[in-house]
């Protein structure tokens, strides 16, 4: 179980103090799929970095299974939007997965079976000798997923992983991810600014307000069967509800940009 | 035999009206152009030598080759070349190693960088040539002073490029490795250093060219062997044809060494040289 209670995050820099998060509380159950949704600059990636252990909290607590999160841990693996940066371009598809097994000190005898299993899960087993530069954007994200799953974490933390993909590939990736989630039972925390993406994926959506001092303004339990029919009136209603939650924030954030 | 293409097919497929289109593979085209370029250079050289100036100031190509043959045959030029090359190699390898090691440390340890960077920023403006007089006093006119001068010229270039490369190792890559379970040492050795290889290689190529440029003045001013010494000696004796042999040798050597370096990079480091663009 991932839990943040009353979390604040302050960034100090030469240009002054920035209050990124203020009073964020959220509990994520094991095996749950939660989307953090909000306009850009709302601190959702900061919250994800705190859950990963890359950033410390300035106030409040962040815990995983009732233990304070103080550093990155192989139980919680982060997937990045820019897979080209996150993957190792000098290693092939297969070697990228092997890298995780190697640093995780998985016994060598288990490597081939593990690599096979997860490359097959993301349908990359026929591309195992290719290098990341030879893969498409969607394939790179699938490789990132396979590499993460291979070290058998409990939680996948995904930072806008499909934002840079074209619409068709993104929809395909949603199907792939939901299928993997169902088969593996991982907890997934998924950051996005795309309302439709959040609705089609999540169990619950945490809607965040624009910074500074952003916080979770609404927790929405979707409670619809998957795969979700985006033409369902309930989906449209949810979409409008979330959009109206975000609109004043978007206006505010664009005003902020104009003032500066 | 159905799949064998008909050799007349292109002609029958496209009416050419008697014109023959000249097609060539890109490789043979570039070889041909390179050959043409060298040929033009020789013609221009001959022209400058015999028409515009005089054959003493600019010895014509054939005269230079006639001078070169006995120098090559007697092993004289080879001895000078190998002496100069060993000097470059020793200075370049030690300078690169020191530059990479210290560059990596400066890129990783903020405090060390902040303390040493001002010194480096000042010292790097001292070219190897500027260091010749003091190098001779410190190390004499023997090999050690040449090693030092090449080292000096290589070290700063490789160091600055290495530090830049270490800084540009993507944060996402380091963090991804961290949550997969890599410790700090593994992140450093398996992520940061390989990520900076393209920058290190660029630094080394620039430093290689600089080594070639600094070995000559070093040998001209303070040596009794090597290509630079050959230049100096020939100049004293007004042997312009021998000077031209030495100059031509430097051109060819630099070209060959850079090719060898590139082949090495392509064979050994190719996988570290690729960047993956975003998306």
Task: Describe the protein's architecture and organization.
The complex is a heterodimer of chains A (260) and B (279). By secondary structure, chain A is of the alpha/beta class. Chain A folds into two domains: 2-75 and 154-259, P-loop containing nucleotide triphosphate hydrolases (Rossmann fold); 89-152, no CATH class. Chain A is built from eight helices and ten strands. In chain A, the strands form two sheets. In chain A, strands 6-7-8-3-9-10 form a six-stranded mixed β-sheet, sandwiched between helices. In chain A, strands 2-1-4-5 form a four-stranded antiparallel β-sheet. Chain A is globular and about 50 Å long. Chain B is mainly alpha-helical. Chain B has one domain (61-273): MetI-like (MetI-like fold). Helices cover 79% and strands 0% of the residues of chain B. The radius of gyration of chain B is 26 Å and the shape is globular. The chains are: A alpha/beta (260), B mainly alpha (279). The A-B interface holds A 52-54, 72-74, 76-80, 82-91, 99-100, 103-105, 131-133, 137, 140, 144, 147-148, 151, 153, 164-165 and B 170-173, 175-183, 186, 190-191, 194, 197, 271-272, 274-279.
């Amino acid at each position: 179980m991932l839990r943040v209670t009353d979390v604040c995050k302050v960034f100090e820099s030469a240009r002054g103090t920035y209050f990124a998060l203020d009073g964020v509380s959220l509990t994520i159950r094991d095996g749950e799929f939660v989307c953090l949704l909000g306009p850009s600059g709302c601190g959702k990636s900061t919250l994800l970095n705190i859950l990963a252990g890359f950033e410390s909290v300035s106030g409040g607590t962040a815990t995983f299974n009732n233990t304070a999160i103080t550093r990155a841990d192989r139980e919680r693996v982060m997937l990045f939007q820019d897979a080209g940066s996150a993957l190792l371009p000098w290693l092939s598809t297969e070697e990228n997965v092997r890298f995780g097994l190697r640093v995780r000190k998985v016994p060598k005898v288990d490597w081939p079976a593990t690599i096979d299993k997860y490359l097959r899960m993301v349908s990359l087993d026929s591309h195992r000798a290719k290098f990341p530069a030879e893969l498409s954007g969607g394939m790179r994200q699938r490789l990132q997923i396979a590499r993460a799953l291979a070290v058998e974490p409990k939680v996948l933390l995904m930072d806008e992983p499909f934002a840079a993909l074209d619409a068709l590939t993104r929809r395909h990736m949603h199907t792939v991810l939901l299928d993997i989630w169902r088969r593996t039972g991982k907890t997934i925390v998924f950051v996005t600014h795309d309302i439709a993406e959040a609705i089609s994926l999540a169990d619950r959506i945490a809607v965040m307000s624009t910074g500074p001092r952003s916080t979770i303004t609404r927790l929405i339990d979707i409670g619809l069967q998957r795969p979700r029919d985006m033409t369902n009136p309930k989906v449209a209603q949810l979409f409008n509800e979330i959009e109206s939650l975000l609109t004043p924030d978007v206006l505010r954030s664009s005003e902020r940009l104009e003032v500066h | 035999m159905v799949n064998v293409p008909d050799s007349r097919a292109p002609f029958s497929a496209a009416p050419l009206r008697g014109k023959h289109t000249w097609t060539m593979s890109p490789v043979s085209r570039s070889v041909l152009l390179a050959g043409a370029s060298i040929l033009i250079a020789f013609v221009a050289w001959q022209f400058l030598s015999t028409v515009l100036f005089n054959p003493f100031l600019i010895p014509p190509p054939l005269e230079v080759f006639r001078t070169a043959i006995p120098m090559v045959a007697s092993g004289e030029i080879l001895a000078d070349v190998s002496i100069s090359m060993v000097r470059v190699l020793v200075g370049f390898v030690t300078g690169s190693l020191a530059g990479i090691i210290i560059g990596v440390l400066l890129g990783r340890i903020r405090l060390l960088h902040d303390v040493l960077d001002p010194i480096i920023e000042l010292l790097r403006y001292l070219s190897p040539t500027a260091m010749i007089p003091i190098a001779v006093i410190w190390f004499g006119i023997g090999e050690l002073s040449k090693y030092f001068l090449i080292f000096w010229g290589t070290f700063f270039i490789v160091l600055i490029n290495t530090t830049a490369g270490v800084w540009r190792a993507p944060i996402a890559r380091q963090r991804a490795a961290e949550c997969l379970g890599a410790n700090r040492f593994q992140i450093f050795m398996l992520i940061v250093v390989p990520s900076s290889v393209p920058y290190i290689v660029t630094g080394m190529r620039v430093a290689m060219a600089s080594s070639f440029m600094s070995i000559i003045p070093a040998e001209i001013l303070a040596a009794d062997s090597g290509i630079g010494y050959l230049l100096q000696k020939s100049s004293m004796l007004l042997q312009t044809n021998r000077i031209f042999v030495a100059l031509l040798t430097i051109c060819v050597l630099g070209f060959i060494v850079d090719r060898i370096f590139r082949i090495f990079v392509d064979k050994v480091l190719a996988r570290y040289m690729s960047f993956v663009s975003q998306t």
